[in-house]
Amino acid sequence: MDSANLVGLSPPNALDKENREDSMYGNIFAELESLEPPLGTTLRSVYDDQPNAHKRFMEKLDARIRNHDREIEKMCNFHHQGFVDAITELLKVRADAEKLMVQVTGTNRRLQDAGKEVTAQTEEMIRCRVQQRNIATTVEKLQLCIPVLEMYSKLKEQLDSKRYYAALKTMEQLENIYIPRVSKYRFCQIMAETLPKLREEIKEKSMSDLKDFLESIRKHSDKIGETAMRQAQQHRTFNSAVQKQASMGYGKPLYMLNGKAPSPESGVALEVGVDEEEEHDDEVLTAQDLVDFSPVFRCLHIYTVLGDRETFENYYRKQRRKQARLVLQPQSSMHETVEGYRKYFNQIVGFFVVEDHILHATQGLVTRAYTDELWNMALSKIIAVLRTHSSYCSDPDLVLELKNLIVIFADTLQGYGFPVNRLFDLLFEIRDQYNETLLKKWAGVFREIFESDNYSPIPVENEEEYKTVISRFPFHDAEIEKQQFPKKLPMSQSVPQVYIQVKEFIYASLKFSESLHRSSTEIDDMLRKSTNLLLTRTLSSCLQNLIKKPHIGLTELVQIIINTTHLEQACKYLEDFITNITNVSPETIHTTRLYGLSTFKDARHAAEGEIYTKLNQKIDEFIQLADYEWTMSESDGRASGYLMDLINFLRSTFQVFTHLPNNNNDHAAMSGKVAQTACMSACKHLSTSLTQMLLDSELKQISMGAIQQFNLDVMQCELFASSEPVPGFQGDTLQLAFIDLRQLLDLFMVWDWSTYLADYGQPTSKYLRVNPSTALALLEKMKDTSKKNNIFSQFRKNDRDKQKLIETVVKQLRSLVNGMSQHT
């Protein structure tokens, strides 16, 4: 049975199955015909079903295709006539289309030809629009870059004009504001890389300017200090003028120069001077007027902005310390002139004025602690330098000028707040040195006065001369004032000159005490102490040296004694003079007294002693002329020539003493006392010298004739003593100077040994003042002479008896001498 039949004869189940397959494949074909993916699932369902599914699918597919072909054929047959009609219409349209094509082509060609210019203009417009857009973009970018470039240009101008601080601010704006806006451009990157280098360049240039500034202030310190010290001096002068005007208006002046108070005219002139100083003070110059401080301020700001302020501060302070050491180093010849000291002080003042200005004009570049430390270091060095160099000064005027400079120096720096107490302490040391130089200078002045003095009373011819003398020296004597002119004053010319010079010394000493900020009591004490040194040391030494000079004779010595008496009396006037200067009452508890009384008393005693010494020396010169023949058998019957010359000399000398001016009782008593003491001293020395001549150890033999000749000479001495060469001796007081020698000679002349030996030791002894040892020495000299000159005397009974007597007396005298030595 064929398959068709099988199909047709199939049971109902078979039909259902076939219908299901047709339905299934119909869905599959529907899915395949649809153009929606995916197809994989559909195709997989074909192959995943029953066996021979592929074959069945292909059969169904072929059947599906045939169905579609029949449907297409039916459709074509239905529409064939319309197609043919459309083709015919198309053929007809073809000719028209060709004509239209030709027309369109021509139109297009004409349009192309006409649009070429438009196209070109359009392209040009497009290009312009692109350029315009590019220009706008460029302008926008340039607007961002131009401020950067302007700031950089401004930076360059600031650097060229050395406005470094402003340049740093500009750099800061560039880095923080402007460059970040255009940082993508290369020039900005180069600019950003350049800025650190410019900062370093600014640091170097500002440091270079600072170095130039330091060098400049080192050179200008002298001028700055000079200006500051001149202003301080003007201020001090103004205050002093005001004080003097006040003292003239409301009380007596502190002191009067050369005994004259300032006149009202001087007060007017003083006011004018003050006004002139005030006008001058209107143009006050300060440190910043003389030095441009902008470099140091600029450098400080620069280093502060750069965050390196500490480095700058350390450098500045280090350099200034070095400059301070250089300023404090004095020149080796500074002590020779006042200009050397002035330049030294000007430099120091200029240095510290600059430091004070920096201290107040900056915030912390220098501190008060730093300046105080620097000042203390400098002050120690200054004091050491001044102490050393001032010790070389021998001119009191230079020392005084140095003191004035130190006072102005101290006042100037004190005005800037620096402590200067140690400088005023130094001035007290220099004051002692100043006094020493004054004493040396016045020693020369006193020597000149004494050398030029004629040591004779001052003659005054008329009232005018008399007033001139008493105006220079406080001399008052009622008796002399009553005398008629011409007359003589008892002192010599050196007395008023010495008195005036002592006052000048007090003035000179006062000059140093001024402006030391000391009280009147302290100044009074200083003046009195320095005056005491002048009197007790300088004047006393000059008087002592004067008295010892060989050309000063006895008359001059007596005049010196009179002069010292008047100077001693004038000491109270010197005390009053100091009191008037200082206005310190002499009744003040701690007021120092003048020691001039002891000075002049010592000088007077020295002069008196020198009178006695010179007299004795002159007596010794005459004694050396003695030429005794000690072995002579008989005397010449007259006194020796040398002794008569000596007595004549003594007479004339004492006549000079007695003829000195005795215008008042004091002078008469003084000259009489000196003459009496000198006369007594001369007689005692003459007696002693004659006795020593007899007892000279080199003299071995003395004859009785020599004793007789010697006795004649002693008698002349006694006659001189009894002739009252100097009035005022009572009785035979002057003759007692020869009593020892007289009793000795009487003992030998009378040969009264029995009485001497019998009465020895008795208060009533005739020969009480004859010492046994003296008598023994002289007797032995006579004993030796007897033995030598009388070889044959042993053959004469009287000579033998005399020789035995001498030997017996010698033995007894020796026993007395031995007894005295044992008793002693």
Automatic annotation (TrEMBL):
Fetch the Pfam families from UniProt.
Answer: EXOC6_Sec15_N, Sec15_C
Whether Plastid counts among this entry's keywords is no
Q: Identify the residues that the record assigns to the Exocyst complex subunit EXOC6/Sec15 C-terminal domain, covering every copy.
A: 423-781
Q: Where are the transmembrane segments?
A: none
Exocyst complex component EXOC6/Sec15 N-terminal domain location is 60-229
- UniProt xrefs under InterPro entries: EXOC6/Sec15, EXOC6/Sec15_C, EXOC6/Sec15_C_dom1, EXOC6_Sec15_N, EXOC6PINT-1/Sec15/Tip20_C_dom2
Briefly state the protein's biological role.
Component of the exocyst complex involved in the docking of exocytic vesicles with fusion sites on the plasma membrane.
Family under the similarity heading = Belongs to the SEC15 family.
Which PANTHER family does this one have? EXOCYST COMPLEX COMPONENT 6 (PTHR12702:SF2), SEC15 (PTHR12702)
What protein name is recorded for this chain?
A: Exocyst complex component
- Source organism per UniProt: Huso huso (Beluga)
